[in-house]
Write a structure and sequence with these properties.
Elements: E1 16-20, H1 36-49, E2 53-56, H2 84-96, E3 100-105, H3 115-122, E4 135-136, E5 159-163, E6 169-174, H4 189-204, E7 209-212, H5 249-261, E8 268-271, H6 278-284, E9 292-293, H7 296-300, H8 305-320, E10 327-329, H9 338-341, H10 345-361, E11 365-369, H11 390-394, H12 439-443, H13 449-462, E12 472-473, E13 480-485, E14 489-494, E15 512-516, E16 530-535
Parallel strand pairs: 1-2, 1-11, 2-3, 3-7, 7-8, 8-9, 10-11
Antiparallel strand pairs: 4-6, 5-6, 12-13, 13-14, 14-16, 15-16
Helix pairs in contact: 1-2, 4-5, 6-8, 10-13
The structure holds 1-deoxynojirimycin (NOJ).
1-deoxynojirimycin is lined by residues 66, 69, 106, 177, 213-214, 272, 333-334.
Length: 537
């Protein structure tokens, strides 16, 4: 390990964290929606997978206009997910199993049902209640044109006009997401103070960290200029964007870091920040700001050696500049599952197996999105009537949205809901073919995705070369991505679909194959779409 003292490296520099999408993991009460009690009952499964922590997506009271990313009360648990007692029990059990717990913090917007927003609607223009959000007068003589041309990430405009308490059409409020998610004004001291208290509330309940939703969105250009085609509504933000990745956000994170540092234990933040470049991402991870951030360029890279290698190099170089580790991720609840992105079917699955070994061998930390360890594909055939993602509705069905990666987990049995819960209900229907992909089926199958993940994560814990540290690229040939790590480890990924020869001299002395994502030929060639770990074990 170079530059980092293994014995004292904080846990989050090399943690593997399992993303639990709460509504789709395990349903204890049979209402078809996953809950905290369900998660609690499945913690031994998570532990056995070999991860270090879980990240729970929002479980707070919410009208569920955006699957819980519309929070109406930040210090409680929604009845559909359980109670604060359930949460405390979950944290206790997780800690007892050696798993840390990260919760989701949604600071860019509240729910429109949040008491603050209700109060803002009841108050008048220019009031302190409205000042917590972003209310503006409309343009045009009647004020009936939105204040500017900003768009919602989910389609349509980013402004909604309110009816004033006296019944006349009035001001507009900003929502970069759904109208049910009004943006907060982060120049407002009350907003800042409130979120520091929210952090403290959960830190005192024992959480080990926070995933920061839309970390790149909190600051808006006070001039509110039109995008005017100069900037995109969503996606990585170009410099000078009026509402993404503005420099003013960093002051917020410095404040949060002071809060988290005032608690014992190594509490941590992970930023969801869709920014233009790893260099911009690194700014969030300066020593007095957040600890980690998803390196989404890896998720976005296409399946070829050059683009994966440059995603890794650019992230590592930029983050090293601020002393931060990289945090790799292949899937989450907002993107199509990577088995499908990589080509679907057998090919997509083989590539996903190889990608997992690549990811777990890279220096830094990694996130696993529930179900990727089962090789779940994106569900593309959901009936329209079952869909719930606001993207689907706000684009009039032009974009299917994200429901296809949020389908409840198949645990056991041969019929839906495959052990997801005690009743037949599941909030999104599961494909019948998932009978082949249940945890129960895969647990005893040496060739399954689940077994591969378990083996990889157990080796990752055991091999001193893996986790935090450095890598050295090895030139192994076209379509091959190869790197070594000290002591005595080499990862080779064959990105091509045909087998590749690997020169014996490349292998570390005395090293043998410790894990491969697919069967390796007796002649030592690496089959297409396959990754191999060599180590002295
Ligand atoms: C990012 C979350 O991951 C996504 O699910 C949500 O819709 C948006 N932020 C808005 O909160």
């Amino acid at each position: 390990m170079t530059g980092v003292d293994a014995a004292s490296a904080p846990w989050w520099r090399e943690a593997v964290i399992y993303q639990v999408y709460v509504r789709s993991f395990a349903d204890a009460d049979g209402d078809g929606v996953g809950d905290l009690a369900g998660i609690r009952s499945r913690l031994p499964y998570v532990r056995a997978l070999g991860v270090d922590a879980v990240w729970l997506t929002p479980f707070y009271p919410s009208p569920q206009a955006d699957a819980g990313y519309d929070v109406s009360e930040y210090r409680d648990v929604a009845p559909i997910f359980g109670t604060l007692d359930d949460f405390d029990g979950l944290v206790r059990d997780a800690h007892g199993l050696g798993l840390r717990v990260i919760v989701d913090l949604v600071p860019n917007h509240t729910s429109a049902e949040h008491p603050w927003f209700r109060a803002a609607l009841a108050a008048s223009a220019g009031s302190p209640e409205r000042a917590r959000y972003i209310f503006r007068d409309g343009r045009g003589s009647g004020g009936d044109t939105p204040p500017n041309d900003w768009g919602s990430n989910f389609g349509g405009g980013a402004w909604t006009r309110v009816t004033e308490p006296d019944g006349v059409p009035g001001q507009w409020y900003l929502h970069l997401f759904a109208p049910e998610q009004p943006d907060l004004d982060w120049t407002n001291e009350e907003v800042r103070a409130e979120f520091e208290l929210i952090l403290r509330f959960w830190l005192e309940r024992g959480v080990d960290g926070f995933r920061v939703d839309v970390a790149h969105g909190l600051a808006k250009d006070p001039e509110m200029p039109d995008l005017a085609g100069n900037w995109a509504v969503s996606g990585p933000a170009l410099e000078g964007h009026p509402h993404w990745d503005r420099d003013e956000v960093h002051d917020v994170y410095r404040g949060w870091r002071r809060v988290s540092d005032s608690y014992p234990g190594e509490r941590t933040f992970v930023a969801e920040a869709w920014v233009q470049s790893p260099k911009r991402l690194a700014l969030y991870l300066r020593p007095d700001e957040l600890h980690t951030a998803f390196t989404f360029n890896f998720l976005l890279a296409s399946w070829d050696a050059a683009s994966l290698r440059s995603a890794v190099d650019e992230s590592m170089a930029a983050l090293a500049g601020v002393g931060a580790p990289a945090t790799w991720v292949l899937s989450n609840h907002d993107v199509a599952r990577h088995v499908t992105r990589y080509g679907d079917g057998q090919l997509g699955t083989r590539r996903a197996r190889a990608a997992a070994l690549l990811m777990f061998a890279l220096p830094g930390g990694a996130y696993v999105y529930q179900g990727e360890e089962l090789g779940l594909p994106e569900v593309t055939e959901l009936p329209d009537g079952a869909r719930q993602d606001p993207t689907f509705f706000r684009t009039g069905g032009a974009e299917l949205g994200r429901d296809g990666c949020r389908v409840p987990i198949p645990w056991s049995g041969s019929e839906p809901p495959f052990g997801f819960g005690p009743s037949a209900a599941s909030w999104l229907p599961q494909p019948r073919e998932w009978a082949e992909l249940t945890v129960e089926r895969q647990a005893s199958d040496p060739g399954s995705m689940l077994t591969l993940y378990r083996n990889a994560l157990s080796l990752r814990r055991r091999l001193p070369a893996l986790g935090d540290g450095q890598l050295a690229w090895v030139e192994a040939g076209q379509d091959l991505l190869a790197f070594s790590r000290e002591p005595g480890f080499l990862c080779i990924v064959n990105l091509a679909d045909r087998p590749a020869d690997v020169a014996k001299e490349l292998l570390p002395t005395g090293a043998g194959v410790v894990l491969a994502s697919g069967p390796i030929d007796a002649d030592g060639r690496i089959p297409g779409a396959t990754a191999v770990w060599f180590a002295r074990d």
